[in-house]
Automatic annotation (TrEMBL):
InterPro entries: Cyt_trans-like, PPAT, Rossmann-like_a/b/a_fold. It is found in: Cytoplasm. GO terms for molecular function: ATP binding; pantetheine-phosphate adenylyltransferase activity. GO terms for biological process: coenzyme A biosynthetic process. It comes from the Bacteria. This is Phosphopantetheine adenylyltransferase. Pathway: Cofactor biosynthesis; coenzyme A biosynthesis; CoA from (R)-pantothenate: step 4/5. NCBIfam families: coaD_prev_kdtB, cyt_tran_rel.
Amino acid sequence: MSKTVVFPGSFDPVTNGHLDLIDRATKMFDHVVVAVLHNQAKSPLFSLEEKINMLEEATASLDNVEVDASSGLLVDYAKEKNACAIVRGLRSVSDFEYEVPQASMNRKLNEEIDTIFLITKDEYAPLSSSLVKEVAKFNGDISEFVPEVVAKGLKEKLK
């Protein structure tokens, strides 16, 4: 039986931390669906299409990755994709405190879909899309934090 997982996020933009988690998930599961979610609490810099294009380019070398968009309940989307689990990254205790209630609610909504937490590598722990955008806004060097396609996209957006 093929094991599929969903790795959701707003990916505004995708960072090397996200890509590391995606890569690690591809080694544990047969199929990883990277689901770009619309977060109503955030005002995105990139459009949905731009995020999908950047993710597709950044994950092109990973054969078992699919990039898709999702809205609505994550567990419904995961079920639609025949996923056994949702993968989330944890950088800190505050991420854990944010993620656990969501995972518990998802489990109540569909007990067949688990949430699996991957601890971010130390080198990516301080990294977030928001911080990358902030550094880029002030012309800081973001090349070690994001793939080249994202660095170009940010440069273009922030002109």
